[in-house]
Amino acid sequence: MGTAAKTILPAILLFSCASKNETNSPDRSSQKQDTTIVATTPNPYAVVDLSPMDMSYFPVDYSKRKMAHDISTPPVMRVIYSRPHRQGRVIFGSLLKYGERWRLGANEATEIELFQNVSIENKKINTGRYIIYCIPYENKWTMILNDDIYTWGLQIDSTKDLMKFDIPIKKTSVNFEYFTMVFQPITNGAELVMAWDDTEARLPINF
Amino acid sequence: MKPFILASLLLTSFFFCDAQTDNLPALDKSPMDMSYFPNNYPVLKIQDKATEPVLARVIYSRPQKNGRVIFGDLVEYGKVWRMGANEATEIEFYKNVKIDGKKITKGRYTLYAIPAQDNWTIILNKDIDTWGAFKYDAQKDVIRTTVPIEKLNEAVEALSMTFEKTDYGCSLVVAWDNVKARLPISIK
User: Fold this and answer.
1) What percent of chain B has pLDDT over 70?
2) In chain B, what are the domain boundaries?
3) Mutation for B interface: A17, A19, A33, most B CBs within 10 A
């Protein structure tokens, strides 16, 4: 196989992967081309956002597993957030100032919904819907759960803060282009993994 | 051959730039979006301009037309369509409403549609937190209602959902390609 073929092959694979996603395949591979289209023609109803929304469940891929009848218990929780791009900028300590409140996303305030009671650092958190946001520092993030739901991220009412948790951060070897929130299982629960630019933080949630 | 190699290189570089590692998800090509009624409720709320409480919201993913003919072709007439992409489209009511005269208890529902040439049958279904319409279960339907459609002169590139205020409450407006449908939601 020549160099040209080696170069072309991933491109072809990429194409085939993309076209597979295009049809009804529920496969949402993490290795697909970013083809989000920012509309060139005006859309009178709702423009496609530059920082698109996304949703993560725990158990991971809950909705796909439910569709496959692979799971019969209700979901534990989900997070709905918007995904700003890094776009070559330095995010932490620059675009986002240390010690200042950050909406942990873009646009609408980031929402975490608990479908059952959970606990964080041994504090019980009841079933329900909450806003989650963050104050980043150089060596830690302060995570805040707040009751001011259905709001816009730039102005979260801090008098409705419910709980705060300090968590460590770690520097990553890769730069994450898009802010990412996902759950990963741990013993006795799951971690809410948050990653953007060169920083990753994990909030352990027990249930 | 050379332009092809160049194009491939370009594509692969895109691929490496944007693929996220560590099994964290990349950006979706049919991005998710959310609409509230009253429209822009979260923005109105922070501006202290919300004059009525939040009534409904819809969470859906936005496939693109990409030059294709959508209705009657990509989305076949007479078949259940997920009215979105990826996770099933979710509509939530924060108080009891009425659709086609039937009481709909507040809560979350999955939305589907069966498009036909002249109308859409819109379905609210109790099977929430699921994916697409691949395992659609009609036994979990809460209501099916047929609504007329309107043809648009200008194609809408990305599937769009928004709410419009009406005398009796609001309508969920769904538009894609050259078709627009309205689902009337009554609060009276």
Assistant:
1) 88
2) 28-186
3) A33
Q: What are the residues facing B91 on neighbouring strands?
A: B58, B109
List of chain A residues whose C-beta atoms are within 8 Å of the C-beta of residue B134: 24, 26, 67
Closest chain A CA to residue B32: A53
Nearest CA-CA distance, residue B66 and chain A, Å: 9
Coil vs helix vs strand at B56: strand
Q: What is the pTM of this model?
A: 0.83
Enclosing H/E stretch for A176 = strand A161-186
Give dist(CA B103, CA B96) in Å, integer. 7
- The answer to whether A38 and A23 have CB atoms below 8 angstroms apart is no
Q: What is the DSSP letter of B118?
A: S
- Report the alpha-carbon distance of residue A82 to residue A80 in Å, rounded: 7
pLDDT in tens, B72-101: 999 999 999 999 999 999 999 999 999 999
B167 part of contact set with chain A, CB < 8 Å = no
Cβ proximity of B58 and B111 under 8 Å: yes
Distance CA B77, CA B151 (A): 15
Tell me what ipTM this predicted complex has: 0.83
Given a contact cutoff of 8 angstroms between Cβ atoms, the answer to whether A131 and A146 are in contact is yes
Closest by Cβ to B134, choosing from A31, A67, A195: A67
CB A85, CB A51: distance < 8 Å:
yes
